[in-house]
Amino acid sequence: VVTGSGGAFLVLERREHAKSRGRRIYAELGPVVSGRARRRRGELNTEIAKLLKQAALPDGELLTISGASGAHAATAAEKEVLDANPALAVRAFSTLTGHMKEAQFPFAVALAALAVDRKAGYPVFDATVERPFEGAPNSVLATAIGYHQFEGLGLIKAA
Length: 159
Description:
It contains five helices and five strands. By secondary structure, it is α/β, with parallel strands linked by helices. α2 (44-54) packs across α3.
């Protein structure tokens, strides 16, 4: 794991509250799902696949912001499950930032919200393992697979 430094500050509030304050709404968060696989029993791939099913992914191509840690087993499991779904165009930002620990998932959510708000996907970060994403994203999936425990993902949608 290559550690990085960074942070994300997200304001999560009800739409009505943001509008009453005259604030810009970048995106809508949800659903967010999480799990805790028994990794020593080899359950991580199954748990990640289960979370993808629970997330109610939209049809069609879906930009996916991976918060993969770089830990060998966890990252390999996430990659295998995400690669099994040809609709997912994955961007693993830790390639650029290192792993930011607690800020990793909020940072992934922030990147997803910006992509949805700006109606523009990100170019490939690593052309050896990522494929292009065409079009303007209406939804973006953000993932976080911890290096020892805990898994989660969230779907970020256009506001």
